[in-house]
Each structure stands twice: as structure tokens, then as C-alpha cells.
Amino acid sequence: MTDSLIQPVDTQRRAPRRIGAQARTAHPAGAGDGHPADAADGHEAEEILRRTRASVDPELRAALDGLPGPMRRAALYHFGWQHPDGSPAAGGAGKALRPALVLAAAAALGGPAARDRAVRAAVAVELVHNFTLLHDDVMDRDATRRHRATAWTVFGDADAILAGDALQALALGLLARDVHPAAPAAAARLADCVVELCAGQHADTALEGRGPGGVGLGEVLDMTEAKTGALLGCACAIGALYAGASAQDVDALDAFGREAGLAFQLIDDIIGIWGDPRRTGKPAGADLAARKKSLPVVAALASGTPAAAELAALYARPWDAEDLESTVHAVERAGGRDWAQVEAADRMARAMQALSRAIPEPERAESLLALAEFVTRRTS
Amino acid sequence: MTDSLIQPVDTQRRAPRRIGAQARTAHPAGAGDGHPADAADGHEAEEILRRTRASVDPELRAALDGLPGPMRRAALYHFGWQHPDGSPAAGGAGKALRPALVLAAAAALGGPAARDRAVRAAVAVELVHNFTLLHDDVMDRDATRRHRATAWTVFGDADAILAGDALQALALGLLARDVHPAAPAAAARLADCVVELCAGQHADTALEGRGPGGVGLGEVLDMTEAKTGALLGCACAIGALYAGASAQDVDALDAFGREAGLAFQLIDDIIGIWGDPRRTGKPAGADLAARKKSLPVVAALASGTPAAAELAALYARPWDAEDLESTVHAVERAGGRDWAQVEAADRMARAMQALSRAIPEPERAESLLALAEFVTRRTS
């Protein structure tokens, strides 16, 4: 299902992955962004993300290495570059999706030169993303992130909060020092986005504290847009700013990222309930067992159907083993799955529309499309 | 003692306060900064702070009012403009010392026009100061700030952390939107200062966890500079940047603020032990009773005298009523009081030297001198 949101996927395209990867190694790093040949295989996004890391990591590392000891230690651990004892680790924490969107948007609207000049802005966006992760984990008391213990469990609340504070300062400081004419507008937009991310995190925490019946679908969609869509949109908008795009095109890129972010979250929620455990690595219905108020569940509860009442009753009492299956079926019968699939497709269609307003030529939009396609099936 | 750090104070100058205040109301707000006539009474600083609030509060309120609901509520409460239930309060939380330093430095080096154009930067500095207070109170579990319950005790940790995050973003966002040519350099400097403030807070937390004998005097001075001096220096430096001052003068203003900040902390620590309870509002020796590792105590412990050993023994065991007096005397006999007085005078002398490098004419430096004098006797 998720593949079909953007375009029908020819399953044959998946086979020659090795050939595609080999072909790409002949390209100089970064030169291929937005190049028509890049779309020739389904692993375009992975290659874009690999090139993003190659472009972004040196400046990201340099920024973190400049931090005073305690914040450096917590930050390098959080990014996966150090073990808790400070010894070097392989890194690889995070996919660098947001910096990839910055660079892809800059390349799509301004070519390779614009991409090269946007690396610092891409680093700033990645720093902001990670500042919010550090703080969210403290607030949510989440113990695991990217298969490792969260920073606050290793270094304590204070150092995790301080590391997050320092990463926000690093991000906005990098943009303040960037001589690119778009840097002030990018910094203003990124600062606004931080406020929106904070509002999203607050809403998420507040919704967690309410019973499932007391949560409106509109509220959860707004929270998802603020918490997930805003920074994806901001990343795309900043790339457009660095390409010297018009205000209209910058806003269109923002809308593209936001809508793709919502599609991503909807699909993530669908997979959390109906995903194949062999592919997701999580037991079937894991999100339901955790009583998450994910979008399909909230839509089902709001449906006014007999199945909605049944679902509300199931969510209100302790479960035994058979209840999980009943709950999955209740969400489905109340229309939660259908709604989420239609909504995700609709969001992705809106993302495509916004993108084509700013970039009418499909071949220039290919990297951005590949990244959008990637996020909407990443956990499947 | 504190009065004499800058200049001998003629006690007669305190009497005609009302006359001085009346005379000043004839001046248009703000026009008097740096004007020679301003130094004619000892309440110059209070008048500067009052004018600062008048200049800064409208833009500060507008920035806070633009926040989404939950962060706005916590921030307006923290600033004293709202009660916990959201009803209006009188405000007046905080002295606005840091924005006053921004405006006074701008006026001293660039005249009234430079001061007027630096209001947004002054707001940014005040926002950063309050972001760090919000987060420090969460980390330190401090329940009281400015005679009111701290924000985290009223709204919870998450909302206090998010409000702090949002205030940092507002601060750097304001500078990113400021068209003044000095805004990017000011933003870069303010971002660096945030990182230094985080390092200072980390050091403070780390020192708290150690026994009094395990704390070096140099460490405590470094921590004090990072936690208190850095933002006072940054405020002065940003004012100088907005006046178009040379890099050398900007750095001299930074040094002025840092050294004055250290002098302030030293005097605050002296008052915390030997201050007159009728003037401080705290019982005599309150800081000792709380076992604070204040600068005179750490200096006394590091003195290598027999009194130092006695003091270490007193700090290592529970007290009864007579021990407080013995401890005060031990700090004194070990030279802690003398050292702190000499060090404070030395820091203030260095502050004056730095100031006169950038502003050789005493009459132009009067507002900054008045503010420095104010902070070094504010709690006496």
C-alpha cells in the first residue's frame, strides 16, 4: 500500500539494486542530486542520504567538537559517535533525512552550487532536530532511542537538557555566522519552527494524559503537523531559501515537507497496527498493546459507529491475549484503517501538488520525490 | 565596603533622591543615557533600569504574546505578568539589568540613536537570561525565584523546559529578523554565550556534588565567570556591536561586563556570610548554614592555614547552633573574607580599566559605571 502512494512500483526495479549502487559509485559525491539518471532505481533515497552524511558530517562533527566537555560528551553519545565512556563509536545515529531535504531542495531549485552552499544550513536543521530529541526523551522518560539508551539515562537529566540547549544555540549560531544572503531568513524560519516543535511536544504530552475518548482527530492531526511536519517543511523551505527561490516557492516547499511528514506519520501508524512483524521487527499490533492514541485509533473512536463504542470499551479496561485481535478488528470495522490510508494518500497528493507548483519539471524534483517516497515506507 | 569599590560615596548624596527623581521626569524617556547630568545622584542606576523597562517591555511582551498557549502561559508567569491561573499580574519580575547594559553600552559608544536601535537586541538578551533561569530551576529543583514559586513547580517540568526552549528560539529569532547590520554578529555572540552559560550551569551542578575540600578556587571562579560573568559581558558587547564599535572595543566591553559580574558575585557571597540581616533580609551566615561553596569559603578552605582544617572539619559534620558562629570566624581567620574583598576590588578595577580602554571619557561611561556600581551593592 505504502509504495502505491506516489506511483505504482514495478517490483522488477528492486532486483538490480547492486547494479544501481555500482553505477552510482562512479559519480562524484553530491554531483547527482536532481540529475535525471538518479531516479532510475528504487534506492535513490538511500544514496541521497549517504551523500548527505558525507556532506554534512564533517561540519556537524566540527560543531560538536567545539562544545565544552560535558555537553560534547552527551551530544557525541546522542549522535552515536561516542560510547558512554567517551570511546569512539561507529556513528550512524539517525538517517539525516532533514539535512537531506535541505540539500535536495537547494539542488532542485538552484542546482549543485546552491546545494554546496546550503551544507551549513543543513547542519543547523539536523542540530535542531537532535536538540528536540534530547529534550523530548527527558520529558517523556523514554529510555531507548535508535536502539541505544537515551542520553538522560546515561548522563542524567541536567546534562541532557544542557546538551539540548547547547545544540539549539549551535544551530542558530551557525546560521548567524553564515554569510549566505539567505541565512537570516533561514534562521528566523528555523527559530519559528522550534517554537512550533515545542507546541507539538506540549500537545503530545497533554494528549497522552487524556482518555482515548477525550481526544479529537483534529487535535491529533494538528499535533502531528507541529511535531513531525513542521521541521520537514522547514528543512525544505530553508533549502529553497538557499537556492534564492521566491517567497511563494519557499512556502510551497514548506507545504510539501509538512504534507509528506503527515503522510509519513499516518503510514507509520498503520504499520504500527497492521505491519508484518517480519518486516517491522515489532510484534503485530504493538502500538495498540501500548494503548497509543495513534491516528487510525483516534479516527476509529471518532467514527460514531458501533465498532467505535466497542473499541472505547476495549481501551478502557485491562486486556488479555485475545483482546488484541478484537481491538485490531474494531479499529478496522470502525473505519480507522481506511481513513488513515485515504488520508495518507490525500496528504501525499497534496505534497506532490505543492512540489509541482514550485518545481514543475518532474526530473528536477526527483530527489525530493525519492526522499518523500522513502519516508512513507521507511518502517514497512 | 561595597560602596567603596568604585568611589567613596558621599552619604549626603542619598538624601535628595526625590529631587533627583523629579528632575529626571522632565527628561524624555531614554534621552538621558550617557548624559553627564545623570551621574549627579546615587540613584542613577534605578532610573536607568526604569527607563530600560519602559523601552524593552513592549517588544518583550509582544514576543511572549506571540507564543503558542502553553509556552505563553508559563513564560508570562515566569516574567511576573500573569498569575498561575492566567490572570494579569503586576510584572516587575527581574531588574532588567542585562538589557540595561545592552542599551547603556550602545548609548555610550553610539549615542541615543544607537540605543534606540538596540532595543530588540536588549530584548533578545533578556529572553536568553530567562530561558536559562527556567531551565536552571528545573535542574536545581529550586522552588522559589523572585519571591514566587518557580515555573516548573506550577506547570510541571515539561512545560518549563519547553518554555525555556521557546524563549531561546524567540531570542535568536528576533536577532535573525533584525535588519541592523550588527544583528548577525550579535546573534553569533549570543549563541556562543548560551553554550558558555550551559557549561557554567553544568560546572555548578558538578561542584555541588563534591565535598568542600574537593573544590578548587580556580574552578569556582571559572564557573562563576561562565554562569554570571558571560551574559553580563555579552550584553555589553552586543550594545557595543550595535553602536558600530571596533572589535577591540567590543571585546573591552565584554571584559568590563565579565569582571563586573565576578565582582558582583564575590560581594554577593560576602554579604551572604557577613551581611547585616536587617539589610539583606536573610539571617546572618545563611549561606554557610546552607553549606554553600561560596567563594570566600572555598578560598578559606584552600588557604592551607590551621583555620582551613578547622573549617573543613566543621563542614564535614552536622551542626548545632553554636557552630555557625565558629564557622563564620574560621572563614575569617583563614582569610576568606579578606581574599574575597581584595578579589572583588581587583575585579572591579579590571572592569574599570577595560571600560576606559573603550570609552576614555568618564562622562560617556557614566551609565555603565552606575550599573556596575548598582550590581556590586544590590543585595547589601
From TrEMBL, chains A, B:
Residues spanning the membrane: none
Cited Pfam families: polyprenyl_synt
Keywords: Magnesium, Metal-binding, Transferase
PROSITE patterns documented for this protein: POLYPRENYL_SYNTHASE_1 (PS00723)
SUPFAM superfamilies reported in the protein's UniProt record: Terpenoid synthases
Region (Disordered): 1-40
Family statement: Belongs to the FPP/GGPP synthase family.
The protein, known as: Polyprenyl synthetase family protein
Organism: Streptomyces actuosus
Lineage start: Bacteria, Bacillati, Actinomycetota, Actinomycetes, Kitasatosporales
